[in-house]
Amino acid sequence: MKGLELAEEYYKAYGESMLKEQFPEILSRIAVGLIGSGSECLGYDDEISKDHDFEPGFTIFIPGEVFLDSKTAFRLERAYAKLPKEFMGYERALVGPVGGNRHGVVRLDDFLSSKLGNPYGELSVTDWLKIPEYSVLEVTNGKIFYDGSGTLTAIRENLRVIPEDVRRKKIAGNLLNMAQAGQYNYYRLTGRKEAAASELAVCEFVKSGLQVVYSLNGKCMPYYKWAFRGMRDLEILSNLEEYFEFLLTSGYSEDLVLKKSNTIEEIAGAIISELRRQNLTQADCGDLEKHAYSVNDSIRDTEIRYLNIFAAVSP
Questions:
Q1: Whole-model pTM above 0.85?
Q2: Phi, psi at 86, each rounded to 5°
Q3: Could you tell me the residue ranges of all domains in the chain?
Q4: In the structure, what pLDDT confidence band is assigned to residue 165 with cuts at 50, 70 and 90?
Q5: 258-273: burial string, b at 16+ Cβ within 10 Å, e else
Q6: What are the pLDDT digits (tens) for 114-149?
Q7: What is the pLDDT of residue 194?
Q8: Is-contact 56 85, C-beta < 8 A?
Q9: Phi/psi zone of residue 297: left (φ > 0), alpha (ψ -120 to 50 degrees), beta?
Q10: Angstrom distance (rounded) from CA 32 to CA 144
Q11: Which residues are CB-neighbours of 209 under 8 A, at least 6 positions away?
């Protein structure tokens, strides 16, 4: 059973009745679900995932202390702690999970601050350029089982749409990085027999390539270890996963240099075709650098357009 399914079944079996019977007065102000960190929130958990931080449980999001006093919050925590310790063959852990508590009672403003840097779930354009996409995704992933006020649901829906100028800035910067790492530096480094450096260039090319593919889909890219897994679910250019994988896993040898160079150009060609399909570029060539600047020139907001082209590229 997937972790998200386990969480929802546990909530339906015990949490829902507990809240309705013991806390009817606050139902209109809370939300319940499972979102945030962890493969189960993305639906990517498997048997290996069950070796840690896997248990029946859910999160009760409550408003700040101005709207819900600490005494009521404490009562909620005690009520949650008294829920059955075992469910469907799985036991709740007695120690806190890696990365902090993911279940139980959580102040919504604290959760949003930890992920987005502010307690309201509102991101300015500057925020969108700076905050890692996986942090945004950790607010919009998973599932909300109940939302009395609709506040959390509205925040999640608003964050699902990346502002268009931000999307273009991300695409532009990562295209330029792909051009420098893959179309330029890889060729020069292999010519110098710099094996380690050439493989590092491949890694940079793939890292930025993955980001471009997610951006072309209008999606936030998950934490790096799930980037490939998540790519399989994308509607656009998901077939490039095997090309990226080949570049990373084939290793270095003189016999592979030409094949990897050709693969880099195949990826570039596929991305350029999609850029044209989405009317993001006016360049007419196979040089990703020229397309990068063309995409950047298409940004409407002059402040964003004139920022360094790498302003939205993750370090």
A1: yes
A2: -130, 140
A3: 3-159, 164-305
A4: very high
A5: eebeebbeebbebbbe
A6: 999 999 999 999 999 999 999 999 999 999 999 999
A7: 95
A8: no
A9: alpha
A10: 6
A11: 174, 178, 182, 240, 244, 267, 271
C-alpha pair distances (Å), 6 with each of 49, 87, 180: 13, 9, 46
- Whole-angstrom distance, CA of residue 256 vs CA of residue 248: 12
Amino acid symbol at 38: G
Short-list 222, 35, 43, CA closest to 133: 222
* pLDDT tens per residue across span 97-113: 444 467 899 999 999 99
> Could you tell me how far CA 41 lies from the centroid of its own chain?
11
Between CA 171 and CA 275 the distance in angstroms is 9
What whole-number distance in Å separates Cα of residue 315 and Cα of residue 312? 9
Tokens representing 180 are 């420098």
User: Residue 66's pLDDT band (boundaries 50, 70, 90)?
Assistant: low
What type of residue sits at position 130? Answer: K
Q: HEC states along the chain? A: CCHHHHHHHHHHHHHHHHHHHHCHHHHHHCEEEECCCCHHHCCCCCCHHHHCCCCCCCEEEECCCCCCCHHHHHHHHHHHHCCCCEECCEECCCCCCCCCCCCEEEEHHHHHHHHHCCCCCCCCHHHHHHCCHHHHHHHHCCEEEEECCCHHHHHHHHHCCCCHHHHHHHHHHHHHHHHHHHHHHHHHHHHCCCHHHHHHHHHHHHHHHHHHHHHHCCCCCCCHHHHHHHHCCCCCCHHHHHHHHHHHHCCCCHHHHHHHHHHHHHHHHHHHHHHHHCCCCCCCCCCHHHHHHHHHHCCCCHHHHCCCCCCCCCC
